[in-house]
Structure formats: C-alpha cells, structure tokens
Amino acid sequence: MTTSLMPLLAFLIVIAMIPVALWMMKRAGIGGAAPAGSVLRHVSQLSLGTSQRVTVVEIAVGAERHWLVLGVTGERVTQLASYPAPDVGTVPSAPAHNAAVNQLIARWRGATGAQGGRDE
Length: 120
Known about the structure:
By secondary structure, this protein is of the alpha+beta class. It folds into two domains: 1-32; 38-103, no CATH class. It has two helices and four strands. The protein has helices at 2-28, 98-114, and strands at residues 40-47, 53-61, 64-72, 77-84. The chain has a four-stranded antiparallel beta sheet with strand order 1-2-3-4, with no helix packed on it. It is elongated, with a radius of gyration of 25 Å.
C-alpha cells in the first residue's frame, strides 16, 4: 500500500514546489520585468478595446534611445511612430495643459450641476 502512495506523494511535492520556484525566480530577477540597463523597456500602454492597445516601448542601442509607438492586436503588431526618447530630467511631471483641462472639467461640472444633472 505504501508503494501505491509514493507516486501521489511525489506529484503533490512537485505541485507544491511550483509556487516556491516562481517566488525564487521573481526574487532572483530571472523572470518578470527587465533590468534597468536592458535594451528593451515598456514605457506605457493604452487599451483601446478587448484585444487592441497602443504601447510605447523604449529601445536603447548604445547611447541612443528611441521610443516606438506600437499598435497591438490579437493578430499583429504594427509600428505607428518612432521618436527619440526624451531625457529623464526633461520629462515634466504633469502636462503643460493640465490646468486648462482641469478648468474645463470644473466649468463643465458646474454647468451640468446647474442644469439639474445630478442632485447632491
């Protein structure tokens, strides 16, 4: 009877080792995100539908860095544009038009509140 339980015990041990191995790979940096000095880095992503999105990827070749804007669907990846990557120090924390957009949103909310759009 003990020999019939050995394969089951071995199977359970293997199944229990999968999360442990994944955790160790994550801690060691083997899988997952790319390291800081890598050639390819994911910058941003915008979902357009269930299987459509626009992705910005940074490619570094030596000292040159480029951003590729890619259209990604379930069937293909299409390059939409290519730009030189901005310097890290020159990227603003908020867009320059942020204040104007916030004013328009506040004005719109005030107009819809005055028309009885939502009672608070």
